[in-house]
Fold Fur family transcriptional regulator, ferric uptake regulator.
Amino acid sequence: MIRRNTPTKEAVLNLLLNSRKALSHDAIEKQLNIEINRATIYRVLNRFCEDGIVHKIVAEDGKQYFAICKKCENPQEVIQHHFHFRCLSCDTIECLQVPVEYSVPNGYEVQNTNCVLTGVCNDCS
Amino acid sequence: MIRRNTPTKEAVLNLLLNSRKALSHDAIEKQLNIEINRATIYRVLNRFCEDGIVHKIVAEDGKQYFAICKKCENPQEVIQHHFHFRCLSCDTIECLQVPVEYSVPNGYEVQNTNCVLTGVCNDCS
DNA sequence: GTATTATTGCAATAAAATCGCAATAAACAT
DNA sequence: ATGTTTATTGCGATTTTATTGCAATAATAC
């Protein structure tokens, strides 16, 4: 499946690139200056996830949030396994530069992590 | 608000007490041998959460799972801050006896954690 | 320019969770 | 026991989030 470049794709990607925070579908739709169909936004985002451009976080509110996969020193690993912080005051989610560290019992194989800390962020405290 | 004892409450609590795993609303409804309304189950579960009898985990699937708050050596703390494991094979969630450890940047205040590791559990591997 | 097919918009649908309201039934007092 | 208070329940409707089918559109390659 060869990807094509479209205005929609560009717009959503730029939004994410310029955002310090992870964005919900809702937030993306509101911040876009061009009008894009709800379903299309979801499809674009899911394609980004498949392609490893973006990662998805599901917060306690049950909603999906999307953030650019930042290229760090330790590409593959660090991208997925970091904590996220959800601020109850400004209602945003951001990627923390804090790795998720754990050990699991024998026989358990971890493929992915979804770790969200909730509280009040620096901006709001 | 004084709580009352009802068959519904008993039934749901017993289910959770006897389960090794965290249960979704759906799973609870199916496993109950008495018929209880969907909304009622949610309300009972939410009351348990308010009362600190049960804790709620939201997984990547966006669904809520409920598990009894086990009394450990270190009551308050350990209850909330442990990892959960979601097995993609048997589609269950369980509490791991693995504490969530992290450090957050200055000015951040963590009130809660929602950490789920996803993969294949011991039973399925 | 034309053909191929990835992408989009629209409407419908699915699924999870909550809410308002009237009816029911625990808990307590008499 | 009986009655009163009000927490709890059932029902139906609603909200919110996310996905899907299908025909129309448009990006890419020739």
Remarks:
- Chain B has a mean pLDDT of 91.
- The first strand of chain B starts at residue 23 and ends at 24.
